[in-house]
Here is the input.
Amino acid sequence: MRQHRILILAFLFLFSSLKSQSVSDPCARVLVGTGQDSIIWSAVPCVNFGGFIIFASPDDVSAPLSIDTVLDINARGYRNPNPGETARNYRVAMICGGVIVFSTGIVSNQRPVTPDLRSVSIIGGNPVLSWNPSPSTNVVGYQVYKENPYASGNFFPYPANNQLINGLSFTDPNNSSLLVRYAIVALSSCNAGLLGEGNPLDGTTGPHSSMFLATSIDSCTGNITLRWNDYENWRDGVDYYIVRMIRNGGNPQNLDSVNSGPFVYPAAQNGDALEFWIEAKEQNISNNALSNRVVMSIDVNKKMDFLYLTNVTIDATSQKPLISWRWDRDSDFGFAVLQRSDDSTNWSNIQSIANNLLQDNSILDNSADAANQQYYYRINFTDACGGNLVSNKGANILLKGTAEDAFINRLGWTGFYQENAVAEIYDLHKIVGSSDLRLITLPNTDIQYSDQTNVNNPAEAQSCYYIEARGIISLPGNPPRYVFSRSNTVCPEQKAVLWFPNAFAPEGKNNEFKPVAGFGSTLEDYSLQIYDRYGAMLFETNEVDQGWDGTVANKALPQGVYVFIARYTQSDGESGIQKGTVLLIR
Here is the structure.
């Protein structure tokens, strides 16, 4: 019984001593560029230590074979020649009392396999990397590398050396540009080499660059061009790109699927808020990558939606054509001109029209001879992109007047003309002195009229006239309304007419010799002389209304025949003379 207890105590002592003696799994790695592998381990040697045995195999199938024995009890590392820097597996064992007591697990000299990057996307304004997990079992994390500057080929640990990322994604919050390129490596606890070291499988799809979307708009056509760099280094490449958009805060919509950029979105509308982005799809795999989002507030060339000539009338003060029009002010102004034609076919630019006008405007044609000529007018507008719009046409009413015999003024005028309008009536106005009266209203078929002047009213010798046409204009999108077009003013001048009696009786009713004058006040110059039969001048006056009473120096002359001569100048400069005899009756 006592012997049994001794055996049990001895076993417990041996078990306790075995636990205190151990060798940890080594770390093995290729020393890149040296043609050697480095194997390091930690150990608690046994009392009867005999050495460390290094085992190696070229792959995961072959059994590890002893390649060397390290007898130094303090040794914790070993370098093995590996000229080709090929993949190898290693194991370390410890000899105690001539027997292999402890043997580690098998480890590879290769860094953990870096998995494929799934995508570099722009999400929320920041680059976001995502990747698949490494198939290696000894991965403790991942290191991100960022190219700086972009397209230089220089990659640096990011955001800092040896900063491990434990997950399968990384958001870069400190991006100065949305066009960036990244790579990753998988790390083990004892193999943390730089990017590109180790197994050729590292970085199997190479570095990935974000897709940077830029947009531009043609303000004349409204076409938006989207440009982006191709997504790079997916294993099977890009299958296609989806062009995506949100319009005015609505639901996302797919505009098209394309093989590459650029892409043109046609005819954007003013006031739209458009948000664009690109989604790349990997071929054969369900990976996708997103570009940055571009928000655009659309402000493109505004074409003129309407341009209407609303009236052509003669300004009463200047006697020049006054042209009125209405146009769309919510348009991008290029230039505009007032155009004039003598025949409504051949047009000339008369005046430039400024941009700082209202919706309803008028302009005088100061170069027109509206007293003698009818003109056709229109407004010609060109927007900022060369788009052209021409108004409807209109013409002034030309009124002509002539003074005829019997103190009649004959009037004729051109008919009212304006596209989109029809005349209803003509009002003929007559101005005598300061009085402006509507003389007569005529139907729209009449274009002439004869006015008998009142010879008893001297002021009517210079009667003036104008026509005012009343029409109805119908413009698209507007209710019909009246339009009034005034003609030029004409003032035909009646000439003075003098009738001399052939006899007078100073003691009778017709007691003076003077002419009966029709509009005599219009004469510019007048003289009347009376002669006896011997040629002596008996009387002279320069006043039409002053007559001869048959006396000379207050002495009554005898009954008889006397000679008169009247000279005068009409208001138009025409000279006249009338001669004859008059019988003085006593």
